[in-house]
Each structure stands twice: as C-alpha cells, then as structure tokens.
Amino acid sequence: MGKRKIIRIDEDKCNGCGQCIPNCPEGALQIIDNKARLVSDLFCDGLGACIGYCPQGAISIEERDARKYDERKVMANIIKQGKNVIIAHLQHLKSHKQDKLLKEAIDFLKEKEIEAPFKSGPEDKGGHTHSGCPGSKTMDFRKNKQFSGEKSPSGQESQLASWPIQITLVSPQAPYLDGSELLIAADCVAFTYADFHECLLKGKILLVGCPKLDDIDAYREKLIQIFKDNKINSVTYAHMEVPCCFGMVSVIKDGILASGKNIPFEEAVISIKGERIK
Question: Is 125 among the domain residues?
Fold first, then answer.
C-alpha cells in the first residue's frame, strides 16, 4: 500500500442524491445509509469523473494511503454492466490520457473475447464527451473553432472556451484547466459589465460562483484541488464592488497558498453601474 490520489466524500455535505453513482463506471461508489460511500479503493482510479456531478460539492480528491488501483478487477466488474458502461469507462481513461490503463482495459476485453466498443475516443467533433449528465459534460471549445468565436447579431464574439463553468460542476481534472489563465467571476459580473467577454474573458478559462449564496468552504476545497492538480498560469477574480463579493478574495488566496505554488493573482472590480473600477 502506498500514497496515491483517491476520492474523498464529505458526509456532512452529501445528501445521498446518487448523481455520482452513474458517473463512476468503475463501480467504486454506492449509496449506503443515504450517503455516497467509496466501497473499494481498488476500483477508484482517482481521476474524479464523479466530482462534477455532485451538486453538493461533497466529493474531492485527496492523497492518502490506498490500495493500488486494479484495472483488471475494474474491467471484470464493468463488463457485467453492459456495453454502454464499458464505453463510458474507456472514454474516461482516454480523456485523462491514461494510455497504460486504457491498453490494460482493451487487452482484458480481448482476453474475454469481447469486442472493444471504442472507436473515435471520448469526444465528438464538437469536443463533447459522451457520458453522464449532458448539462455537466466537460467540453473544450478551443478544440474546434466552429464552437468558439461565433458572432452574435450585434457582431460581438463569444469568448467562452469551456463548459461547465459553475465552480461546483467543474472537475479539477478537466483537461482545459492545465496551462490556463483562469478567470473566476462572481455571478453578477457578466450581467453588469458590458465588455465582459472582450475585456475579461478573452483568452481565459471561466469559473463562476456566488460568494454570498453558495458554499464558500466547498469552493475553497475545489480551488485548492484545481491549483494543486494543474499548472495555472494566472488567476483573475472579477467581482462586484458590493461587500459580499470580496469574500472570495481570501478563498482564492488561501487556495493558492495551500497549493504551494506561486500563481499570479489580480482583481477586477466592477461597479453596480457596470464600470470597471480596478
């Protein structure tokens, strides 16, 4: 047994909704006593496919002593669940560039004389993944120009580069995070600041949340994980001038400090009249 990344479930936050279960093809999760439980370290690959599907922000990734993940045992469990689950698992491995595990999985299928139902990979031409809730699928619009920079009737171009954007729904392992310039924006900013796309969002990956109405502690944990697991080139926090918006400043700074990295941080403050103050 050695240290490795593996999911952690906060029982106080988990409400037993079960949305994480179908998004763990490996079968590492079950609902027991109205809570999501990690039932086997052997089945958890630590890649966090389930994280973005937890509406409570109860799932995170930690590094601890855990039994080594066993791809062959996972596949033995997965093939019992049918073709669609096999596809979801293989796509999951490929999207995280787990080439060695992907080969082990396909070799196992060949041994069992099962054709690997895996052709073009985890994404279609638009960069859409094919498993889980459609509204929370990880999408990188930068991979296909037809999905970015489309002009509105006014002639302006959208600068949104990825999906989802809500902090709770974004997986710390989302591939578009690594090497990114990160824009964390309070909910109201995009509605207030007319030049949001061109002056703030352009060239950045967006995360959105409300420091007053959302779970700020869950945000802190999620941001720490994002900063630890990815090379973040810079962080900009865009927020309104109202006092409640400033609460996220310390959360972001705490996350950067906890990551042990030196990530440049700046603020963009917007007035309630839609003017950029700072």
Answer: no
Q: 252 lies in a domain?
A: yes
Write down the pTM of the prediction: 0.55
Note whether 103 and 156 are same-domain residues.
no
Q: Which residue intervals of 7-62 are DSSP H helices? A: none
Residue 96 maps to a domain? yes
Looking at the fold, whether 143 and 264 belong to one and the same domain comes out as yes
pLDDT in tens, the chain (278 residues): 678 888 899 999 999 998 888 888 788 888 888 899 888 788 888 888 788 788 888 999 888 888 888 889 888 888 887 777 788 778 777 766 678 888 888 999 999 888 876 544 444 433 434 444 555 567 777 765 444 455 566 667 889 999 889 998 888 888 899 999 999 999 999 999 999 999 999 999 999 999 888 888 888 888 998 999 899 999 999 999 999 899 899 999 999 999 999 999 999 999 999 999 96
Longest dimension (CA), the chain: 65
